[in-house]
Amino acid sequence: MEREFCLVKPLFLNLRTGWFDRSMYGSNLVFAKDIAVSFIQGRYRVNADSNKMNISEFWFDAEFKTGKKEVLTKVLVNQRFLRLKKVVVKLLRFLLLYFPKDKLYIKASGSGFHVYFFLKDCDKETWELFIHHILYRVRIPNTKHVSELTFGLDIDSILSSERKISEIGSWNKVKKDFKHEVNYLNFNTWVSVDKFFELVSYPFCSSSESVQYPLQYECCNMSEKLLREAKKAKSIGTRESSNSLLLTKPSRVLEFKGNIQKNDSAYQLQKHCSCYWNILRNPDSQWYARNFLVKWLIYSMQLEKAEILELINKYNAWSDYEPRITAFYVEKHFKEGTNESKVKRPPKKETLIKYGLCKNKSKRCVYGKLYK
Q1: Which of 93, 123, 126, 171 yields a CA-CA distance of 20 to 30 A from 220?
Q2: Helices (DSSP H) in 165-249: which residue ranges?
Q3: How far apart, in whole angstroms, are the C-alpha atoms of residue 150 and residue 67?
Q4: What gap in Å lies between CA 40 and CA 37, rounded to an integer?
């Protein structure tokens, strides 16, 4: 990939333990030629600005969610396999109208599937045009913010501008031993399109020796047909309606019934605007919203790590709250070289509006006075 795509940025993780391990306190990202571990754990999605050939990667995460915490077993995954397969089949049948099957890649991640491909001569604007059009055309449910068993796509992750991707050969050790989301060890493995259509059960892979790899990653040429269709849809407003469908996040904020003293940091979160307080009290708050909250607490309210953890622990209403995991991600904001510490300022109002976290679209941001 690095040679054929002419990558100019280090995208590959050089740790055997996966994204979770920050023991080196560096970026841990290297060029492929400098990888020192036996198999690649993960990488960042290939964006047009990361290579000389203007190649963009399209990546789709097919999964099932119940809206509540559960520990997955192989039996449970197989019970849900056929319904999940229908989601992937629907996506594949659309993509196969425009791209050759030998350049569409499928990865079995342990309970879900990743479908991805690489497109030449595709800048950021074209990527955004295509990804919204594809999601609109396939009309597959979003698995975020669900309250019942739902089979679909993780659309929030698909639309993320800088997406971390587990690579073929990586394992789910963090999910098994730290997050306790599964009770089995599994290695990501490649499945060809033809093989996928033949599957009758989930293709688990319990050892690194059994991992299947494609011969190489190849790029698709620009589909002029898809480009014409996407531009036409945009011109008549279809894309705008699909954007609204995809990016509007339901807000479910739980009331805090205790008393908050004026000298409590939580009081400041409520004093002028409910934006950050809502992030803290929304059971379905996403990772990016929590990231914005922590940046606000650090760079506007100037809280220390211990103060932030105490505030979150006392007032959060997150349905998946785990103190250990939260402490780990807050710590990354204080460590130089991590992705979280790159931007050392609070989120902009425009960013909060983009992600549906701020409804104050016309007035001056009341939080502006707190920016340092």
Answers
A1: 171
A2: 173, 193-198, 224-235, 238-247
A3: 8
A4: 7
Same domain assignment for residues 172 and 289? no
Write out residues in the chain with pLDDT < 70, as ranges: 16-27, 39, 236-252, 272, 360-372
For residues 225 and 308, membership in a common domain is answered with no
Distance CA 221, CA 94 (A): 16
- Report the largest interatomic distance among the alpha carbons of the chain, rounded to a whole angstrom: 63
Contact 72, 132 (CB under 8 A): no
Question: Which helix (H) or strand (E) covers residue 58, if one does?
Answer: strand 56-65
* pTM as predicted: 0.70
| 214 and 243 co-located in one domain | yes
Domain limits for position 357: 265-370
Considering the domain architecture, whether residues 237 and 327 belong to the same structural domain is answered as no
How far is 278 from 270, CA to CA, in rounded Å? 9
How many domains would you assign to the chain? 2
> C-alpha distances in angstroms, 308 versus 56, 98, 303, 313?
37, 49, 6, 8
DSSP 279-334: HHH-TT--HHHHHHHHHHHHHTS---HHHHHHHHHHH---TT--HHHHHHHHHHTT
Task: Give the pLDDT of residue 94.
Answer: 96
Give the count of beta carbons closer than 10 Å to the beta carbon of residue 25.
Answer: 10
Same domain, 216 and 269: no
